[in-house]
Design goal:
- The chain is mostly helical.
- Helices cover about 35% and strands about 5% of the residues.
- Bound molecules: protoporphyrin IX containing FE and 2-acetamido-2-deoxy-beta-D-glucopyranose (2 copies).
- One 2-acetamido-2-deoxy-beta-D-glucopyranose (NAG) binds next to helix 1.
């Protein structure tokens, strides 16, 4: 899958700004696709999701942006005062992926070129990489969550990944700070493209409520996939669902183990081990840095004027108030 740089560049030239508020009968996806890329086509919706998800993963890489820095989920950070480091779940150093067995296996999800293709608005260099499947599934899943009405037409396929977010994430044993950090990066990425704070808060609350509540009852996210167990936050410290919790539906949480590199699937030779130290390996894994390289896909439009900053604390306080 390739997204045309010319589409983005052409759209940038035609941006005329975003009206103050999204009408309630227009989805977040449709509204910002129109605002940023003009035509509300399946291909443009796919481009919007690519821009946002790539930014969630590697941090802000497009120019211009509205002055909001996004570290990205692969960067170490903190949430609620706790250190968070999600990279080991993605680089093959933890046996935390569900491949149908009773325990997790290590998978390197940065095997398709790492950050470099993402900076070119692509999911991966190779369409057979784990990175490709993960990234395209994320575009598709978030496209559905955000109500992309053209998804399923040529240019933006429907979601084709695991139906249950619990099953997909269960061997990661994620806690509320890891989930909170992830959701914060989603919010920051959206803000960096000019998405209005009310829309960001709404999305963050939906993510927290669907995936951040321990013991949550089966819920439908992708209509064609029906009701599924969706809790991603499963540690005992996660807030428990208040409406009809079904703790018995979830297996006991097992911490993923660190693996030696020889055991991990498709791991590059010089991958860093999960030591808690900053990653130092290079190999074929290209880690995002605060790169000054101008991205190939620039310039990228933003819904300029919609937001000049995002009060992350306020958004997450809103999420917390909603959850608790
Ligand atoms: C709002 C929260 C989240 C959502 C909606 C979400 C969604 C998804 C989706 C749709 C997939 C693709 C599943 C597939 O290909 O079948 C996925 C995979 C994955 N997610 Fe998440 N995720 C979330 C939080 C997290 C967090 C906090 C982590 C922390 C490490 C994480 C790590 C991963 C990994 C490593 C995979 C690859 C799993 C595999 O293919 O085995 N996710 N996620
Ligand atoms: C939008 O779609 C119309 C009709 O398909 C087409 O004529 C026009 O060139 C498109 N504009 C852009 C900016 O893509
Ligand atoms: C990310 O955004 C910040 C804030 O606008 C900016 O200073 C920085 O240059 C951006 N980084 C990249 C790689 O574009």
């Amino acid at each position: 899958m390739r997204y045309s740089k010319t589409i983005i560049a052409a759209a940038a030239a035609s941006i005329s700004g975003v009206s103050a508020q999204r009408p309630s009968d227009t989805s977040v996806c449709d509204y910002y696709t129109t605002a940023l890329l003009k035509n509300n086509t399946a291909a443009n919706q796919a481009t919007l999701l690519t821009l946002v998800v790539n930014t969630v993963v590697i941090g802000n890489y497009t120019q211009p942006n509205v002055g909001i820095a996004v570290p990205g989920i692969l960067a170490k950070g903190t949430f609620n005062g706790e250190e968070v480091n999600l990279l080991p779940y993605f680089d093959g150093s933890l046996a935390s992926s569900n491949r149908g067995g009773k325990t997790g296996v290590a998978v390197n999800f940065l095997d398709g070129g790492g950050a470099a293709p993402l900076k070119e608005n692509k999911p991966a260099n190779s369409e057979s990489s784990q990175q490709y499947f993960l990234l395209t599934h994320l575009y598709q899943f978030f496209g559905s969550l955000l109500g992309c009405t053209q998804q399923g037409m040529a240019g933006f396929p429907a979601y084709s990944g695991s139906p249950s977010m619990y099953e997909a994430h269960k061997f990661m044993a994620l806690d509320e700070n890891e989930l909170g950090y992830f959701i914060t990066q989603v919010g920051l990425a959206a803000a960096s493209f000019g998405v209005a704070e009310a829309d960001i808060t709404g999305v963050a609350m939906a993510l927290q409520s669907l995936f951040g509540m321990r013991c949550s009852a089966p819920a439908t996210v992708i209509p064609a996939q029906g009701a599924q167990l969706q809790a991603i936050c499963i540690k005992s410290t996660c807030p428990q669902a208040t409406a009809m919790p079904q703790c018995d539906a979830y297996a006991a949480v097992v911490e993923p183990s660190s693996v030696s590199m020889s055991m991990s699937m498709s791991a590059p030779a010089s991958m860093p081990t999960h030591s808690g130290a900053a990653p130092t390996g290079t190999g074929s894994m290209s880690m995002p840095t605060a790169s000054t390289t101008k991205p190939a896909g620039s310039p990228i439009p933003t819904a300029a004027g919609a937001v000049n900053g995002l009060n992350v604390a306020a958004v997450m306080a809103g999420v917390a108030a909603f959850v608790l």
